[in-house]
Amino acid sequence: MTHTPGNPVIGVLALQGDVREHLIALAAADAVARPVRRPEELAEVDALVIPGGESTTMSKLAVLFGMLEPLRERVRAGLPVYGTCAGMIMLADKLLDGREDQETLGGIDMIVRRNAFGRQNESFEAKVDFAGIEGGPVEGVFIRAPWVESVGAAAEVLATYDGHTVAVRQGNVLATSFHPELTGDDRVHAYFVDMVRAGL
Amino acid sequence: MSTLPTSPQSAESAIGTSRVKRGMAEQLKGGVIMDVVNAEQAKIAEDAGAVAVMALERVPADIRKDGGVARMSDPNMIEEIIEAVSIPVMAKSRIGHFVEAQVLQSLGVDYIDESEVLTPADEVNHSDKWAYTTPFVCGATNLGEALRRIAEGAAMIRSKGEAGTGNVVEAVRHLRQIKNEIARLRGYDNNELFAAAKELRAPYELVKEVAELGKLPVVLFSAGGVATPADAALMRQLGAEGVFVGSGIFKSGDPAKRAAAIVKATTFFDDPKIIADASRNLGEAMVGINCDTLPESERYANRGW
Q1: What pLDDT score does A6 carry?
Q2: Does A2 touch chain B (CB under 8 A)?
Q3: A74, B115, B248, B267: most buried by Cβ count inside 10 Å?
């Protein structure tokens, strides 16, 4: 860890996906944000965001580029991680409707169903009440989004939409079905940065 | 986001908004979108790490070879590909053929490419892309063309290049053109933006937005002629947020290997060692065509306006 007093260094897994938007949102939430593609870059961050993207591709690239095991090790060792959409899928201990060979990192005791809200024509925006975030509901942008079928005892549900769990936290690990990074509303990122600060 | 009209929204939830259409393309960034003509190829593309596939009946190199009118693909074939893979599936409509676009939306494709690779159905008008829930990607050779497509509702732009040639020269030309014009806008003051909009033949609001952002308000990929890992990395280094690879993969000697190599070079576009490794022993690349010997009538990039 290379933590220095001041703002935490938060990496964004940059194998593929909306990395830029997360970097901007994290910077707005007073973190030092940087892209992470290699194990040595992963070793230098205090926390990690796994962005939205195509989860099968991201998982495949993580295997292909030798990132899967280093990521698993750091998550197991307690690295604070926040995953959006594809990132939520990566953080699921168990996955439904994924590819047979699709690897996840795990980190949250939950079962996630991939593309549960449908294909692109069903992608939608809606207001979502988020436990622990003040100032009214957050804007939820759901794109070919997953939902959480069930969570274990250690995981806490932070938001639901239409009866489905769409935000979960377990200890240092946070996951949302939706994409706060696309909205310009940085409150979920600020919530995560607070989590990171609390653990440092 | 854009000040242009968007689909109606309710207070409860809204589908087909600009944010979910453009946001979908944001999820594809850093990735490779591959042309496929059947379910088997789609699986090879997915296995290689493609972020999406483009379902079409013939790859551009074969459209060139066969000649005739190139149209939307058979719905059966598109549905088979949707069934075969879990990644997003795109499909092409002819320019201005809004009924082909309606059909593609009804099939549930994730993105529609209103594409110059197919034979245009209308020589004046592109489709009104605001009218659809399904997002559209369109080609452009310069900034004005890109902004006209965005004004019509395109949620993603790809520089056109010259599809089916295996020659990256036009892709480079078009991407450089778009990037240079954006850079020039950055240097203009407010007084100059009105004249710039007139010259670009694009709505002032969009021109102003680009001048402020320093980029398009939608994701910009590159297409048309990418055949090697180094080609893909070149387009990324020139500023493309991802690449479309058409004929380059399945017209080569070892498609699975080449597809994976292009994905790798696209992710690590700024690491020559990784690109070198990805470029080893790929077998034969597609043969390729010299673009300066292509007659004007066979240049797809000239289609669309």
Answers
A1: 78
A2: no
A3: B248
